[in-house]
Amino acid sequence: MRIGLIGTGRIGTFHAGALSRHAEVGSLVVADADPGRAARVAELTGATAAPTVDDVFARGMDALVIASATSSHADLIARAARAGLPTFCEKPIALDLAGTLGALREVEAAGTRLQIGFMRRFDAGYRAAREAVREGRLGRLHTVRAITSDPAPPPAAYLPLSGGLYRDCLVHDFDILRWVTGREIVEVYATGSDAGPGMFRAAGDVDTAAALLTLDDGTLATATATRCNGAGYDVRMELAGERDQIGVGLDDRTPITSTEPLGPPAADKPWPGFLERFAPAYEAELDAFVHVASGALDNPCDGREALEALRVAEACELSRREHRPVRLAEIASAL
């Protein structure tokens, strides 16, 4: 299979390595807005560097992987759809509903396949939690707690391009809440704090946020995120039911210290970032995409999943601004 990869930044470099090692990928062509960076990644992974994005499309690829800047995603998805290419795209499709809906309409009109990069769906811990919930081992689920904490803020220049903490970061929690529980989020009440570094205030963003989410069966969930967790990269989920309670993301690298005399010791090597924590999940989602592109596997995470997670993020941002609960029915969804 011939695969094109657009974007060779941090995640694009990881994807290039994973695809170049895949037994069913015969050739990999990479391109980037910075041709020199694409050339370096090509040399590192054994791929071929293309001088431009146009050149990738001109080479007759069988599938496309998009890991470029967020602002380019919707246009590249639409272009790939018109070219008939199965496409994998890192989240988000776009930073707004209009751009997301436009790209999805292109995919629908072309009848192509679009897989979105919500890698937590491929993490062993989240998959086990989903199985436990779906099989009823917890009994009636009543409470879910989702946590995402970055060890340090991103560069200041990134913030105005990110879409904000809800769309850029917590969107992963919104997606995995829906996927693990099998329920839809129907109402949110969200708030945020910009009391940390001044660059968040300058960008109109928050460095810490919390949301109370009501699911369609009455289950209550909380989702919290921060850019300023000096202990390390911390992504967890706790699910409590009438019979049992389970946790995702608790291991010897979880960056949390117990104050109990008999509690577990602090992690010797806490997770430093998302690539280290979710490396196997990233590999697994790309393996799935190769099989989706070949027609051997149904799409495990299509573009509508990205739309639904973005609708929750949009509702949270509206709730934060207007200091009120927001029903998801207020947020546009029709293609």
Task: Characterise the protein shown here.
- This protein has 335 residues and is of the alpha/beta class.
- It has 2 domains: 2-120 and 283-302, NAD(P)-binding Rossmann-like Domain (Rossmann fold, 3-Layer(aba) Sandwich), CATH 3.40.50.720; 123-274 and 308-330, Dihydrodipicolinate Reductase, domain 2.
- 39% of the residues lie in helices and 21% in strands.
- It has 12 helices and 13 strands.
- The strands form 2 sheets. It has a 7-stranded mixed β-sheet. A 6-stranded parallel β-sheet has the order 3-2-1-4-5-6, with helices on both faces.
- The two termini are 32 Å apart.
Q: Could you give the order of strands across the largest sheet? A: 12-11-7-10-9-8-13
**Architecture per CATH nomenclature, i.e. the level-2 architecture of the largest domain:** 2-Layer Sandwich
- Average pLDDT for all residues: 96
The Rg value, from CA coordinates, equals: 20 Å
- Could you tell me the CATH topology label of the largest domain: Dihydrodipicolinate Reductase, domain 2
Distance between the termini: 32 Å
